[in-house]
Amino acid sequence: MSLEQKDFKRKFLKKASGRVRLVKAVDPSCRGIGSTQQVLYTLSKRHEEHLIPYSLVQPVQVEAKRPVIFTPSLLSRGLIERLLQPAESGLKFNTCSPEPVPASERRDKRVFLLDASRPETALGIRLQSIQDVVSQDKHCLLELGLPSVEGLLRQGVYPIVIHIRPKNKKNKKLSVMEEVCQAEELQLETLPLLHYTLEPSTWSCTDELLAAIRNAIHRQQRAVAWIELDRLP
To answer: SUPFAM superfamilies per the record (predicted)?
Structure first.
């Protein structure tokens, strides 16, 4: 690497915040074959020196109200309860209560399990229930985890995924939350759908967090959904 390239890399990493996408014109393995395929990479602060290959994504404009999934998933139930409390929220949001799923339906692609690792106490949400809320022109706030995202996309449902980064406070309860958050951040990188992140600096109390979530849902509804369609045959 030349000195110029080193200087560029040093300046780039210094300025980079969050996740940045780099575009490489030609895959090195395809040189000499006449290929012009683009290869996208992501560079994050968590993996400063590690380039992770990305497939191309395509824009999808969704007119219907998109359901909402929260991460870390441990926060989902409490957030949904609070978002539905004010009278005016009932005009914009609703939810689908998880229900027991019989063994005969647990492999049904139209049923989304809350925790597939515990089939003996399987609770899930049916696609029809989500569609019923969407038909009311409301956002369906879901307790589902990130593993359900790809299944929803395969059914033509494009959820809004909101990732809430916890504030850095030194106590045992939050340490557990940080561990869960870090694990789910890794899952976020594998989603075939672009997600939205709420940074700790955007809120200082629960009311501000709820307001930030409402604003994020409103903005994401108007925005284009970027989907990795190649993974959804």
So the answer is: P-loop containing nucleoside triphosphate hydrolases
Strand order in the sheet with 139-142: 93-95, 139-142, 68-71, 160-164, 196-198
Residue 44: alpha-carbon gap to chain centroid: 16
Task: Mention every residue, 6+ apart, whose C-beta is less than 8 A from residue 123.
Answer: 98, 99, 100, 101, 113, 114, 115
- Mean pLDDT of all residues belonging to the chain: 77
Side-chain half-sphere exposure of 167, counting CA atoms within 13 A: 10
Residue-wise pLDDT for 153-202, tens only, equals 999 999 999 999 887 765 555 566 677 777 888 888 888 898 999 999 99
Spatial neighbors of 70 by CB under 8 A, at least 6 apart, are 76, 79, 80, 141, 162, 164
Query: What's the pTM?
Result: 0.74
Fold of 63-223: Rossmann fold (3.40.50)
